[in-house]
């Protein structure tokens, strides 16, 4: 057995020394079993490499589960041969003849080779970390996170390895999953696993202070980073769209976007309606899939009436069974009737409408024009408009099944119908907006695609990133980012709800103590929103998949919460390591001119230095794994974003890594936002420099007299 004193690098005698010692003695079940005993542990078998002898039975696509839309990459014969060759290189020659025709059939039928034969026959979920066969706790934690991303209760299209967003891949095919699990089971503290767009390149020697895992997804040369090129490259199996937390193994189910939606709707009510109490107010939107499914629960938490349209009956029923939707109907008449009743009684309601959101918007216009009554106060859209022509947006002219058929058989006609539907949707929203109704873009590229479709979304005299309606970052969340607040999260790898309850208690105590010690009014408001969120999250049973929690926190809050959790692990109040992470949609993690950086006005909104520097800086400061992606949120070629995972194991080294890395992870973005001219970011970064003499940031000087510019340019 390995000497526990070598775990982790630079071991020192910490508090609760005896408990540390018992914690890091690796149990026998974490060590590989001989082949004759593999039947005793399905996880052991899962980590033993590709199953080749014998090959698993080819069961094809599983019935009764949602599947990704058929892709239409338009490959030539030579490109199809290349795609097949690329898939077969994962397998030895003696099985290639058998696998080649079924892989070719998948390519023909579905536009991609998923390797359905190798979809594991195991209950896919986040198992307690000690059950994974591994040599390092970091590897076991990563396995826990990967399997959570593919849990059918979490993933949108589990057999196609899509976690959310319609095309947010964890891997490109199942061979990659098997190899990754195998490498993780063998990885030591002196190795790093390198991932190229879903493909495990291999284990490479490194130091124990280096990341255990480095992920890149979709790093295509800029001139070739178009949608058309992407479809071909994905079909060839050489790149992948990892969305944000799908391809970085950090998704925590719809809870993450529930919290973001709660904060967005609360702050929208404050800004647009001038109210704190949303009783009787109506929020209309669309989408009940992987991310958008959160909207129903968020409406209940903030206390309003949420009406959410969804064309996919399976997605709607899934949210209803989970209890996230209170009621469902496929009748527009019934939908309007319930909306009126709930407004009158000031009920809290989440109502799912099984139908197209365009029909719902147009019916609301009809009600306004015939009765003079505007039945909606706030509105947005969470269709997957970053992927509008391949299942992300369904046109109102077709049923769900008709649309799925047409997008595969005649993509050009389908595109025309999508764009016509977008124009109709915007026309209805524009009519309602003449009343006291407020709409915002939720960062899903809705207004961008509507503009490309010729819809009336122009804002006269505006820059390239501005439309008739604001992005939620521009009006609602941008100031929060500039103050260093963003979606911080953690996962209790024990899988024990009691551990999560302890972390909730610790986080609440940290925020309450910060308020008691005195903070700015704007910071106090955010802390109070988060304390309310933690209490509501526990009451509303928001956990789907792994035992995870999210809250919006600033640099001080993140570090303090991390330190408190690490100390609780040290003293065994928490039974197993905790993974810290965040959404890529954060202060520093994403350069996205139509979302995260849409309130950057110095011309650098289309530059990606911040996200790339964040990825590198996190790796240098102690992250357990890091990821850098092309695409995410608003779509392929529109954004560069990155994320991290940091395993807290109760050691002093883990605390030091958390302090360094989390501080950088926030200050990088605040400094960039300060340099762009944001006054709130300027104040926060100056305050942070006062508190840490090692931080020295270049501060901007304003042009105080605009005439200087005007006179200079008259030359």
From TrEMBL:
Which GO annotations describe the biological process of this protein?
L-histidine catabolic process to glutamate and formamide; L-histidine catabolic process to glutamate and formate
Highest rank taxon of the organism: Eukaryota
Its annotated pathway? Answer: Amino-acid degradation; L-histidine degradation into L-glutamate; N-formimidoyl-L-glutamate from L-histidine: step 2/3
Q: Name any cofactors this protein relies on.
A: NAD(+)
Claim: Signal is one of the keywords in the record: yes
Q: Where is the Urocanase C-terminal domain?
A: 479-685
Ranges for domain Urocanase Rossmann-like: 253-476
One Pfam assignment: Urocanase
Keyword Transmembrane helix on entry: no
Q: Where is the signal peptide?
A: 1-32
The record places domain Urocanase N-terminal at 124-250
Q: Which PROSITE patterns match?
A: UROCANASE
What keywords tag this UniProt record?
Answer: Histidine metabolism, Lyase, NAD, Signal
Q: Which family does it belong to?
A: Belongs to the urocanase family.
Q: What is this protein called?
A: Urocanate hydratase
**Organism of this sequence:** Macaca mulatta (Rhesus macaque)
